[in-house]
């Protein structure tokens, strides 16, 4: 996977003169020491400036040393500049005049256009309140599914990937870098070789750990439409260097944990309220092959695992098996899958060893005689009462035919703190909102489920209220007109009517006359707060508020962020729509 190579062209012209005139088109800067000199160059190059001058008061050797190594100081520039040349002249006083000319892969206007495209894409594909792990996967999948590797080696940039749909590895690494940077996820470039060709990829930090991510090598050649590979997704140094060579002297962070172990630990954490997210990531990246339930020691176990997995009519199956299982055993186990009449073809990748080296990996790709046009359910966008029991039905649609697949459809791991699915019925454990993912024969359906308790219904509306500040809970607006008291900002802090907001959040809200205080009860959390006080008590522990609670129109108004975060809700301020989002 070849990336472009950059050139440093050194043009040295030494002249002694009393007066020196720069080219009129280039901006001139002054630097009194080598650090200033280097900072000016890096700043100008990052601004995509192609021609500028520096008057330097120092030694010529300093200039030469900086210019020969400048691109290695900034990996981003190494990916975005194809050549840099410089010339220098000196006055009789030993002052050096340096002219620097750089060739960027993108002009400043195209760089701005690319950034705008990236902003638009991220606003569309990144949903509120998702984890950094999910953000990285969404970005990875977008890049891989919407790009093709440029085998002609004509296109090199992230602009090319977004406009032409293709690039060499340099464009993949740049787009990955720029997208993740905008999401505030730590990311670096890694330079090296693969298949004896120059190559560049990324490292990404999730939580406390760094991982290698090669979006180029995860995009198959020839291209498979709408298909992602995860063979080079979040790898350790040991895993990536099996077929990548990392260039020396890059000062890269070290990897400390395998991504499977990292996700597995989070999926099993008892303190993590969203452990289902990490279970899902294990499935979607194929790393769940390392789970014991997906590992076969005997041919009988291999056959059993395949039969269990085929029940949900997946488009692909991945499992590990012991080296004692022969290829004939594998073929025999695969042939049994054809007992499902709807299967037309089964193919598989070349069998390779897993990352431990102790097992082999079988990746099956399954085609069906007739792929459904879509998957639908009887679930709707309406708000459900948490006391409701729903009869769940899922259908595969083939033209005008609709087949009930409730017993066969795969339901991705979901938030069991919010809802439960048993057979063909769905019940709620709490109020909230959640995306349910159904999958059958390569088709997916995502359904958003929202449920509130009976008290919360009177405050909810789909229409945005005409107020200067609004509140959305579980993607629905709160209408405060029934209590005639709206949120307001006091000393840069948003205060909201306590009962309306927190009854929607499934809290029990009461007024204690004896203590002149409001009491908010949510599961095992009890919050006590009094008007005109900047102290609240959470399970008996005093907490200082950003702003004191107030009594307005006989309604107690409280700082929204403190209460919401005290019951493990995420609060986001949407500046554009002047709306507070609570998840």
From TrEMBL:
InterPro entries: CAP/Cytokinesis_protein (IPR052557), Cu_amine_oxidase-like_N (IPR012854), Mao_N_sf (IPR036582), Papain-like_cys_pep_sf (IPR038765), Transglutaminase-like (IPR002931). Transmembrane segments: none annotated. Residues 161-217 form the Transglutaminase-like domain. It comes from the Bacteria. It holds the Pfam family Transglut_core. SUPFAM superfamilies: Copper amine oxidase, domain N (SSF55383), Cysteine proteinases (SSF54001). This is Transglutaminase-like domain-containing protein.
């Amino acid at each position: 996977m070849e990336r472009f190579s950059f050139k440093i062209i050194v043009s040295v012209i030494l002249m002694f003169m009393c007066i020196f005139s720069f080219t009129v088109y280039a901006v001139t800067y002054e630097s009194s020491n080598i650090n200033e000199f280097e900072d000016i160059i890096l700043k100008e190059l990052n601004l995509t400036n192609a021609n500028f001058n520096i008057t330097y008061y120092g030694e010529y050797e300093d200039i030469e040393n900086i210019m020969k190594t400048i691109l290695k100081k900034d990996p981003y520039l190494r990916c975005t500049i194809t050549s840099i040349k410089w010339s220098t002249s000196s006055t009789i006083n030993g002052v050096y005049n340096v002219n620097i000319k750089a060739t960027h892969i993108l002009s400043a206007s195209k760089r701005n256009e690319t950034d705008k495209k990236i902003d638009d894409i991220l606003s569309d594909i990144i949903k509120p309140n998702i984890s950094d792990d999910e953000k990285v996967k969404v970005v990875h999948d977008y890049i891989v599914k919407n790009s093709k590797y440029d085998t002609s080696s004509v296109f090199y940039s992230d602009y090319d990937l977004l406009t032409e749909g293709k690039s060499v590895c340099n464009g993949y690494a740049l787009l990955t870098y720029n997208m993740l940077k905008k999401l505030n996820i730590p990311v670096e470039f890694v330079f090296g070789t693969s298949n004896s060709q120059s190559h560049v990829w990324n490292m990404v930090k999730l939580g406390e750990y760094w991982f290698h991510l090669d979006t180029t090598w995860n995009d198959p050649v020839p291209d498979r439409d709408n298909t992602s590979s995860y063979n080079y997704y979040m790898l350790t140094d040991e895993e990536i260097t099996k077929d990548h060579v990392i260039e020396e002297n890059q000062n890269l962070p070290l990897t400390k944990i395998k991504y499977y172990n990292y996700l597995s630990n989070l999926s099993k954490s008892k303190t993590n309220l969203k452990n289902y997210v990490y279970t899902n990531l294990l499935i979607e990246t194929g790393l769940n092959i390392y789970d014991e339930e997906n590992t076969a020691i005997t041919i009988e176990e291999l056959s059993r695992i395949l039969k269990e997995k085929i029940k949900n009519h997946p488009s692909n199956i991945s499992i590990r098996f012991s080296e004692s299982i022969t290829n004939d055993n594998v073929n025999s186990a695969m042939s049994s899958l054809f007992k499902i009449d709807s299967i037309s073809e089964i193919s598989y990748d070349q069998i390779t060893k897993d990352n431990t080296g102790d097992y082999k990996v079988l990746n099956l790709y399954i085609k069906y005689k007739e792929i459904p046009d879509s998957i639908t359910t009887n679930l709707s966008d309406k708000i459900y009462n948490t006391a409701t029991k729903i009869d769940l039905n899922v259908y595969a649609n083939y033209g005008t035919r609709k087949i009930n697949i409730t017993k066969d459809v795969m339901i991705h791991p979901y938030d069991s703190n919010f809802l439960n699915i048993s057979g063909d019925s769905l019940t709620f454990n709490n109020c909230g909102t959640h995306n349910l993912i159904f999958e059958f024969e390569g088709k997916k359906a995502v359904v958003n489920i929202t449920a509130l308790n009976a008290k919360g219904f009177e405050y909810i509306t789909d229409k945005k209220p005409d107020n200067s500040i609004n509140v959305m809970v579980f993607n629905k607006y709160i209408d405060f007109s029934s209590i005639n008291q709206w949120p307001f900002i006091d000393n840069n802090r948003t205060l909201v009517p306590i009962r309306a907001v927190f009854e929607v959040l499934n809290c029990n809200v009461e007024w204690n006359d004896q203590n002149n205080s409001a009491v908010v009860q949510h599961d095992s959390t009890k919050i006590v707060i009094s008007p005109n006080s900047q102290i609240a008590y959470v399970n008996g522990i005093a907490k200082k508020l950003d702003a004191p609670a107030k009594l307005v129109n006989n309604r107690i108004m409280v700082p929204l962020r403190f209460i919401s975060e005290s019951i493990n809700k995420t609060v986001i301020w949407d500046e554009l729509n002047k709306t507070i989002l609570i998840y």
